[in-house]
Amino acid sequence: ETSTTIFLNIFVNIIFIIDLILNSYYSLNSPPDSEEKNYFKTWFTIDFVAALPIEILAASFHVFFNYQYISLIKVLRILRVAKIFQTWNKIGAIKPTRLSYQRILVFGLFTTIICHWVALGWILVGGVKMQGSITSAYINSLYWTITTFTTIGYGDITPQNEMQRVFTMFIMVTGVGLYGYIIGNITSLLSSMDHAKLSFNERMEKISTFLTYKKIPNGLQKKVYSYYSYLWETHKGYDESLIMNELPFSLRMRIALFMNKHIIEKIPLFQNASEEIISEIVMQLKPAIYTPGDYIFKEGDDANHMYFISQGEVEVLNEKTAIVLAKMGEGGYFGEMALLFSSKRSATVRATDFCDLYLLDRTHFFSVIGKYPEFEKEIRQIAHNRMKENMQKVDIKPAAAKKKVSKKKSSIKKRAKP
């Protein structure tokens, strides 16, 4: 054997031994009902024999082994190929993201193994003369395999006897099917590399056709397109509510908490809130998107929701004076005062940019704060202070403000009663 072959054999043996040790370790430390626990009853014997460094043992102890027996032991390693795909399927089941890329890797591995085996088969039937190095012979054989599989066949390497002709015919017949399989899979994989983008483009084509058919003005069409462009950039075209509603309650709660907890924690109103309060609030939040210039609500509207800003910016306006009372961005919240005071909206809120908001409706709002009296008291105090600040900005006289706030505080007590 050449030094390259010896090195490859040693390298492969090391990999097999490491794999044997790891599988044994995981089997011993796995739960009793897990599949890995049966490793010693299934794959251990095959893995152990396949991992034995026969050549090294023979050379070390000066023992002669018939080469045919050594080759027979090495054949056991072929059986381990099935474990590769089995392991890959387990990985895909644990984390089935980027399925297209996983399919490409599995497909590439499968094709490589088939080509490798056929190349070795061509060497076995004498299709390549062993005049040079083993590497050169293998490359020539692999070249013949690929040209035959792809139905190119330049004719520079041809079968010279009956055995080679039978082998060639078999590869030609199977090669047609394999070639079709390869082309079909490549086409399928390329088309599904970005399924979300493909679905989104199809959706946009339908929307474009609809807008054109209904003769929607160009300015309004641009707003529709900009909305969907924002939807793709921030959400990849997916409807968060639809996906969340498909999940069981326990998973929905954990995912909602992971996605929205940072929003709640940034809000001063909830900085001292317990985990239970935050969890309850997060579970009741509903996502909504507003485009630049949209009025989220206007002064005098009924108060049905409290709002949390996940992304974007809004401005709070006084409808009569057109004074901007405040501007709020990510982590901001608004709308709680009208809910607490059971009154109409005292100001107008307008989106100045694309805004991702989360809405908490009146019923759930009172349901949450009603369970936690201390938390309710804290919210009322903060809302009271914010109302006083807003009144000062629009030059409401202190006496009138005090009277108005007192009136609203009494309405809170009435609203809080069961």
Would you kindly provide a written description of the structure presented here, covering whatever features stand out?
The chain has 418 residues and is of the alpha+beta class. The protein has 4 domains: 1-79, no CATH class; 95-193, Helix Hairpins, CATH 1.10.287.70; 195-238, Helix hairpin bin (Helix Hairpins, Orthogonal Bundle); 249-416, Jelly Rolls (Sandwich), CATH 2.60.120.10. It is 63% helix and 9% strand. Strands 1-8-3-6 form a 4-stranded antiparallel β-sheet. A 4-stranded antiparallel β-sheet has the order 2-7-4-5, with no helix packed on it. The longest helix has 30 residues, at 162-191. The model is unreliable at 396-418 (pLDDT under 50).
Topology:
Layout: H1 3-28, H2 44-51, H3 54-61, H4 67-79, H5 81-94, H6 99-124, H7 134-149, H8 162-191, H9 195-213, H10 218-235, H11 240-245, H12 249-266, H13 275-284, E1 286-290, E2 295-297, E3 305-311, E4 314-317, E5 324-328, E6 333-334, H14 336-340, E7 348-351, E8 355-361, H15 362-369, H16 373-393, H17 398-416
Antiparallel strand pairs: 1-8, 2-7, 3-6, 3-8, 4-5, 4-7
Helix pairs in contact: 1-2, 2-4, 6-7, 6-8, 9-10, 12-13, 13-15, 16-17
